[in-house]
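Propose amino acids for all 473 sites.
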């Protein structure tokens, strides 16, 4: 998939310029100029807009390119492909299959004509950026219905922090942080908010709909296969869906609940190997970078062994996302049926917390398997507290925060246990004494990592236990 498309990560800042802003005077250098028209598309149900995804066709002279922008916390990914005027190229269209299924066919939602004045500048430490001032016409056919300006600073080379200096200079010149994350977001209506009703049934429905939206938001990036964070967030959405199904079972028809829960487990199981490999590879690369040069070099063979498994696990993920089970989950979550029930979500959360307390009394003695079970119970308790948030009000927030801290500590311990197992497997399969020695040193680090996690567990548990008691009292 990735080989048919051109991706890059966008590190950029957008600002609203003051009236009369002159980029040439600001930069004190000659500017280049471009003119292009951007036609934006969305599904009939506006699922791309809701997910923060942008699909556009950019026409510049005789060149037409399709561009798909995927959101991320640190930097957006832009995926580009040449194509015609009628529809996205097949490789790009394939990344949107889930949106087309749930949201309906693509249609034009906006057309913008941009005159861009820009210059490339050198920043500190070898960083380079492009600073652009865009004059944008909003079109209805050939008629201009609105105009606005935008200043964009995009990092071309260097570290993210390099943009801060130029951004501060622009703000001193009167620019302000942009009112919208993208040009098209300025003119399209904001997605309708999820129903904020606090009845148990309404809450369960809204959470399930939110997880459907989360799956759609991270589906294209997961299919593309070069954004590990998307796969992680998809797994989180599946886990939250499972937790909502489990905690809110009384508010859901039994047959519907059982069907969705079975399908979620099926798909989630196929996503696990790729995510686990991503995490371990990232950790092993970071650890290798801290070893002496000869030990780091000795780990190169082990890294190549693991990297050879990446493609098969990514293929497994794509197979899962093309499966009938996955599409059935999206269909069923698009309109969750709910029924009223006597039990409150706070009661359900209290039950999960009590089950966690029972296993915690045994697990805190330090047995790895019991601590793993405590971690899983901790996740259930956290998700149940989050589900009950409207009923718990302000007192629920500290309990959720403490549950997250507890989950992080237990997760660190479990990661160390799994990492040690994987390291021992790699050591058993190597014929190099140097590699075995380097892996052995990493095993020792996992022992230290586990000890630190167990030491942190006492305080994390105390804080959670007290916060949960106050929230559920």
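Proposal:
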């Amino acid at each position: 998939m990735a080989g048919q498309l051109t991706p890059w990560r966008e590190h950029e800042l957008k600002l609203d310029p003051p009236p009369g802003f002159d980029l040439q005077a600001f930069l004190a250098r000659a500017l280049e100029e471009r003119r292009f028209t951007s036609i934006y598309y969305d599904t009939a149900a506006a699922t791309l807009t809701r997910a923060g995804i942008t699909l556009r066709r950019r026409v510049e002279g005789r060149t037409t390119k399709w561009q798909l922008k995927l959101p991320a916390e640190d930097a957006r990914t832009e995926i580009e492909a040449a194509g015609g005027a009628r529809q996205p190229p097949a490789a790009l269209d394939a990344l949107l299959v889930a949106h087309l299924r749930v949201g309906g066919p693509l249609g034009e939602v906006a057309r913008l004509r941009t005159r861009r004045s820009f210059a490339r500048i050198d920043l500190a430490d070898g960083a380079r950026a492009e600073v652009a001032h865009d004059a944008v016409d909003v079109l209805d056919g050939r008629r201009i219905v609105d105009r606005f300006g935008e200043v964009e600073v995009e990092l071309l080379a260097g570290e993210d922090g390099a943009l801060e200096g130029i951004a501060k200079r622009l703000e001193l010149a009167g620019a302000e942080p942009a009112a919208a994350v993208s040009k098209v977001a300025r003119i399209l209506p904001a997605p309708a908010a999820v129903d904020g009703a606090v009845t148990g049934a309404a809450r369960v429905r809204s959470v399930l709909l939110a997880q459907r939206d989360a799956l759609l938001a991270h589906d294209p990036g997961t299919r593309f296969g070069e954004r590990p964070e998307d796969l992680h967030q998809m797994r989180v959405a599946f886990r939250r869906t499972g937790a909502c199904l489990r905690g809110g079972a009384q508010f859901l028809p039994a047959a519907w609940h059982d069907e969705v829960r079975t399908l979620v487990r099926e798909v989630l199981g196929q996503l696990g190997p790729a995510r686990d490999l991503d995490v371990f590879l990232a950790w092993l690369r970071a650890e290798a970078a801290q070893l002496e040069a000869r030990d780091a070099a000795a780990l190169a063979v082990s890294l190549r062994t693991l990297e050879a498994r990446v493609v098969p696990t990514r293929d497994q993920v794509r197979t899962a996302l093309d499966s009938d089970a996955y599409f059935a989950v999206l269909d069923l979550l698009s309109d969750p049926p709910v029924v009223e029930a006597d039990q409150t979500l706070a009661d359900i959360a209290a039950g999960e917390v009590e089950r966690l307390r029972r296993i915690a009394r045994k697990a805190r003695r330090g047995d790895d398997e019991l601590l793993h079970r405590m971690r899983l119970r901790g996740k259930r308790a956290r998700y149940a507290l989050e589900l009950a948030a409207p009923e718990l009000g302000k007192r629920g927030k500290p309990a959720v925060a403490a549950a997250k801290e507890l989950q992080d500590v237990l997760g660190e311990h479990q990661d160390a246990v799994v990492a040690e197992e994987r390291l021992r497997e790699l050591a058993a399969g190597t014929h190099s004494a140097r590699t075995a020695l380097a892996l052995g040193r990493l095993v020792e680090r996992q022992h230290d990592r586990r000890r630190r996690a167990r030491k942190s567990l006492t305080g994390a548990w105390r804080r959670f236990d007290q916060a949960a008691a106050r929230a559920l009292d």
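Residues 2-186 form a domain with the Hypothetical Protein Pfu-838710-001 fold (CATH 2.40.320.10). The chain has a mean pLDDT of 91.
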